[in-house]
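Supplementary Methods, section 5.1.

A reviewer requested that the exact input to the structure prediction be made available. We therefore reproduce it here, unchanged from the version used in the analyses.
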Amino acid sequence: MPTYDYSCPACGHTEEKFHSIKVDPIFACPVCEKNDSHVVMQRLISASIGGFVLGSTPSMAWKEKRLREKKNASLELKQLERYGSGQSLKPNVGGMEVDSWSDAAKVAREAGMSSDSYQPHIEKEKHTSKESGIDDRKWKQAKDKRDKS
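The structure derived from this sequence is encoded token-by-token as follows.
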């Protein structure tokens, strides 16, 4: 509900009133009533509509954006902790499963095959926790993003 300014035409006393926009109130001047006269106050038209905000202000938008970023960063961190860094492929060479991608590259080289395609997986394996399967770099990024927010 908006705040309106009212002024007494007789004595000049001003007052703020808080009421619905649909109401057309009639207020008597409290100063003039003390002097035993009944004068109806008139609503003033003001440039500012203090307390009554339509839409969003820049500061409100910034706060909402920051809160949304903080929630997203926190959610991303929780998802990484719960589900790991995404799908993990099982290393294999020519249909034979091996324990790690670096082992797969060794077996491929011994068999005369190219081991270049295994390099991205080997790099990811270096940064992935054995217990949780989480890529430590992604986890650290999500944690830093949450802490900054």
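The CA atoms of residues 54 and 90 lie 56 Å apart. These observations are discussed further in the main text.
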